[in-house]
Write a structure and sequence with these properties.
The chain contains no helices and eleven strands. With 120 residues, it is mainly beta.
Length: 120
């Protein structure tokens, strides 16, 4: 129904930058919110950044001031600009999208995940 395709992950040195992209396609009536989560080995998946339909944003304390989430509504794409990367940012990053159906029901979708590795 709805698919999310992520890109932009890779290997960078500490202090470097990466930009993640997540494009949504399929049967989309309305997008309520888009966000990024990450999961490091042996740890729980955590919210990194979220952008709502109102354009309000939320960030994990660990990434505030370093990461910026944005979206392009025309392309149904959400981005995560990651600057000043540190080894603790190493994880698989997952795109998350919440949509509204035509009947007003919310649905949640996940991307396939993209690996981000930050070396010291």
């Amino acid at each position: 129904q709805v698919q999310l395709v992520e890109s932009g992950g890779g290997l960078v040195q500490a202090g470097g930058s990466l930009r993640l992209s997540c494009a949504a396609s399929g049967s989309i009536f309305s997008i309520n919110a888009m966000g990024w989560y990450r999961q490091a080995p042996g740890k729980q998946r955590e919210l990194v950044a979220l952008i709502a339909s109102s354009d309000s944003t939320n960030y994990a304390d660990s990434v505030k001031g370093r990461f910026t989430i944005s979206r392009d509504n025309a392309k149904n794409t959400v981005y995560l600009q990651m600057n000043s990367l540190i080894p603790e940012d190493t994880a698989v990053y997952y795109c998350n999208v919440v949509t509204w159906s035509r009947t007003g029901r919310p649905y949640e979708y996940w991307g396939q995940g993209t690996q981000v590795t930050v070396s010291s």
